[in-house]
Write a structure and sequence with these properties.
- The structure is a single chain.
- This protein has 440 residues and is α+β, with helices and mostly antiparallel strands.
- The chain has 10 helices and 4 strands, in the order H-H-H-H-E-E-H-H-H-H-E-E-H-H.
- The longest helix is centred in the last third of the chain and has 68 residues.
- It is elongated, with a radius of gyration of 40 Å.
Length: 440
């Protein structure tokens, strides 16, 4: 009994020591909320979408829509050197080689389109809709990247739990080797029992190292999503919290008003309608006014007027209307109407697709919740079975094969339980992402 107590004490000490080597306690703790906050601040895709939104915001202006007048300054100067010969009305002839003729003109001009068939106002409304579209695209990017971060984070939680289970398996196998070797030394077991225990230990160690490799690579990927130093070390939560209160009717209602893909389809329909207004504007006349103040100066080496200068105000009005352009106007309007019809079809298609994904994801969510309960009970049973098996193995009433079976059953039960919790959490994240409202 003292020998067995020593073995059990050694097992727990080694398990605790090995787990510390997997997840070092000095590593800073990273919660799911902190990971999301860091991604919102640093993720490159989110930054790019944010800058695109700023571009859309800057595009919303009266000048960009063509509503405001334009004011420009002008300057021109022309110089000529030529051999000139002039014959006047009285027959007098004047000739001059290398005669210089210089002219200069400068001033300011203002032009303003005061009516273009209301195209400018439709364009301004369209720019505002494009700004809304940019905001919705940013929201879609944020939801997608937050979903990626949470998926990767909880994958790490699952892998961390699996690592601990595999580590426990390694510790048990190492103790089996020690027990088998002690039994062989006192003549109660064959050499084959020691060799079998050593093979199982090597197998468990290999599985542990493979899982640790996957765990470290996933940490690197999460650092990439957070756009920070890829070798940053951290530790994640020990368990997965699952929201088991989601209702399909609430999710579908939320998706209809908040899902970014549906909202983008609705905005694109409005953009298409405003585009039709701009096309129809070509049926109306375009009227513009212009004015300016011009200074002119000229010098001529030959002629009646050797110098000439002037300044004054110029103003006018212009109008034009399309009378016939080969039926292009009708063609353009038909195309614009078809674009509106397509946008309506896309709204219906997108709504149906999102609802279909929600229904499928919700069914998966319910199944995963049931599996979490089932696998949780399996872990309890596997733990009890492993305890009983190890006790029987100590007194020599069962074979190593039975011990190995109980050991593998425990590891598999823990792994399936971790996977069930992870899949349930991913189902929850997917549903909230589709509904357009991932929250904590």
């Amino acid at each position: 009994m003292r020998f067995f107590a020593h073995i059990v004490f050694s097992l727990f000490c080694m398990a605790a020591s090995a787990q510390d080597s997997i997840i070092k306690p000095e590593y800073p703790f990273l919660s799911a909320e902190d990971a999301v906050a860091e991604a919102l601040k640093n993720n490159y895709d989110i930054k790019l979408a944010s800058n695109d939104l700023k571009i859309d915001e800057n595009n919303v202006s009266l000048a960009n829509a063509g509503i405001l007048p334009s004011l420009s300054g002008t300057f021109s100067q022309n110089n000529n050197i030529q051999n000139s010969r002039q014959v006047r009305a009285d027959g007098t002839v004047q000739e001059l080689d290398n005669a210089r003729n210089n002219s200069m003109q400068y001033g300011i001009n203002l032009g303003w389109t005061i009516f273009d068939g209301f195209r400018m106002f439709a364009r301004y409304d369209q720019l505002k809709e494009l700004e809304k579209l940019g905001g919705t695209e940013l929201k879609f990017t944020i939801l997608t990247r937050v979903g990626d971060v949470l998926t990767t984070y909880y994958d790490l939680v699952q892998q961390q739990q699996t690592l601990k289970a595999l580590d426990t398996a390694v510790v048990i196998s190492r103790q089996r080797v020690t027990l088998a070797d002690n039994r062989f030394t006192i003549g109660k077991a064959a050499r084959l029992e020691v060799l079998n225990a050593q093979v199982d230990l090597n197998t468990d160690t290999t599985n542990f190292l493979r899982q640790k490799e996957l765990y470290e690579n996933t940490k690197t990927y999460l650092n990439e999503l957070l756009a920070r130093e890829l070798t940053t070390q951290f530790r994640v939560a020990d368990s997965v919290g699952i929201d088991d209160k989601l209702k399909l009717v609430d999710l579908m209602s939320s998706a209809s008003s908040q899902n970014p893909q549906i909202q983008m389809a609705l905005i694109n329909k409005r953009v298409a309608e405003l585009n039709l207004k701009q096309v129809k504007a070509a049926r109306y006349p375009q009227i513009g006014v212009n004015t300016g103040y011009i200074f002119t100066e000229s010098e001529n080496s030959l002629g009646f007027a050797r110098e000439n200068s002037g300044r004054g105000l110029s103003y006018g009005i212009s109008a034009n209307i399309n009378i016939f352009n080969g039926f292009l106007q009708k063609r353009n309007e038909n195309v614009a109407r078809l674009q509106i019809d397509n946008s309506k079809l896309i709204i219906d298609q997108q709504t149906q697709a999102i609802n279909s994904q929600l229904i499928s994801a919700y069914q998966t969510y319910l199944t995963n919740l049931e599996l979490v309960k089932l696998e949780g009970r399996n872990v309890e049973i596997a733990e009890q079975n492993l305890d009983i098996t190890m006790e029987k193995y100590r007194i020599g009433s069962i074979t190593q094969i039975e011990v190995r079976t109980a050991q593998l059953n425990y590891v598999n039960a823990v792994t399936r339980n971790n996977s069930a919790q992870y899949q349930a959490k991913i189902s929850e994240v997917t549903l909230k992402e589709l509904a357009g409202n991932i929250t904590f």
